[in-house]
Amino acid sequence: MALHDDEKTPPSLNEDIHRDGSSQDDYECEFSPQEQRKIIHRVDRRLVVTVGVLYCISLMDRTNLSAASIAGMNVDLGLNSLMGSVSKYSVVTLVFFTTYIVFQPPATVIVRYLGPRIFLSAIVVAWGAIMIGMGFVHTFESMAAMRVVLGILEAGFFPSCVYLLSTWYTRYDIGKRYSVFYILGSLASACAGILAYGLMQIRNPIYPKQDKTVYGRWRYIFAIEGTLTVVLGIFAYWALVDFPDKAHTSWHFLTEREAKFIINAVNRDRGDAKPEPWNLKKFLRGGLDIKIWGFAMIFFNTTTVTYALAYFLPIILTENMGFSIGASQCLVAPPYALAAIVMYATGWAGDKYHLRGPIIVFNMILCIIGISIMGFHTSAGVRYFGVFLTTAGANSNVPAVMSYQANNIRGQWKRAFCSATLVGMGGVGGIAGGLIFRFQDKPGYRPGLYACIACCLLTLLIVALITLGSYRSNKKADRGEIELEYHDDGDQKGFRYTY
């Protein structure tokens, strides 16, 4: 999958001349456009692909409950029973997010100090071990406890990846990279159902005639996928790269001159490639920018829908649309394949035409149309078509929102705060997504559908408000009345918000 628009035209990272015609740095003059493209392609292969594959297993590990639920887990562990007005299954899904949210803010600080290779590979191996353990639990309480620990370990992964990617690319190179990163996660969602169906066919090799409720085949979903996670986590230690300022020390990934080329390009674009010393005041001061909370709320609305689909789509296909268990596991895949296509197309268009807000609006309109068809048409086949539109719109919006915030934030610690806040609110969306489809609302699940539509409409409103505020600020900056996003350690003026 090509990440550049045209091999004849160097990407924006290669534009090594200032607007006034002067060279930024002697290092950049040493590389021809062809050499610059090779450097960027090397970064793409090592960075985007590696974190994308790890995110693939992260998303698979946190959302495989839905596949296990219809494979016998709910019966074996008694998860269909209620705790108050909420099913135990919903409790197991949401306890993950309690620790997932709490432990995210310090993660972007820790990854800056320990480095991505050590931090990310360690937590991947650790949560893989927890996944293996989930295959051996026998009670609701044990499963809930495992999910709590899983939330602690996975909390550091996604915000660290978002932050890491944003340090390597300029504002109009990042959209496609975020899309490819999340596409690999969508492929995990697409293949998870098929993989789970295959794992369900495994018989207990020791006691092949043993009743499946004693040692249900759903357990293989956790045990085998957890083993795969541990193996990939170990491999990640050698595959991952560090931040640009330390890239030349990461297994000879880049030379010092090549790393300097990347750093200078990012500095020209937004002036924050150089690492800043830790400052709690600067980190927390990011919370004073209302845009950050707007981005976070958009991400909450988006993840509410994506997690609702991840946790309940196989159940809805079985109970609402009448498909068999095996068919439901496999029918999850095609909508996510469409989501991958839409995701990359919108990421490419956003980078090429410097658009962010309109991409989000398009995705949300697609999602609203899909939810309406999915919930209110009389034909099961047509409702399944609505699943395609809903899945494509909701999942495509995840990298779109990540690009939106990355384009409009400057400063290392403000960027770290924004990444943690964004993904933290995404975790809150995971809690909401785990609760909006209630078993007592089946088979129509109308309240959950109304909640998803409300989230999409709220996103449209927030994007409109942010766009209006950004437009006004850019006009004031053009008139010289203000200087946008200029921070204490910044060395670049002329920054403008992206709509």
TrEMBL record:
Membrane-related topology note: Multi-pass membrane protein
Q: Which residues form the signal peptide?
A: none
InterPro entries for the chain: MFS, MFS_dom, MFS_trans_sf
Q: Which residues form the Major facilitator superfamily (MFS) profile domain?
A: 47-472
Q: Which UniProt keywords apply?
A: Membrane, Transmembrane, Transmembrane helix, Transport
Q: Where in the cell is it found?
A: Membrane
Ranges of biased composition (kind: Basic and acidic residues): 1-22
The keyword tRNA processing belongs to this UniProt entry's keyword annotation: no
Ranges that cross the membrane:
47-71, 91-111, 118-138, 144-166, 178-200, 220-240, 292-317, 323-345, 357-376, 382-404, 416-436, 448-469
- GO CC terms for this protein? membrane
Major localisation = membrane
- Tell me the segments the record calls region Disordered: 1-28
**GO molecular-function terms, A-Z:** transmembrane transporter activity
> Does the record bear Transmembrane helix in its keywords?
yes
Which Pfam families does the protein's record reference?
Answer: MFS_1
Question: Under what name is this protein listed?
Answer: Major facilitator superfamily domain-containing protein
Annotated organism of origin: Ampelomyces quisqualis (Powdery mildew agent)
Specify the taxonomic lineage.
Eukaryota, Fungi, Dikarya, Ascomycota, Pezizomycotina
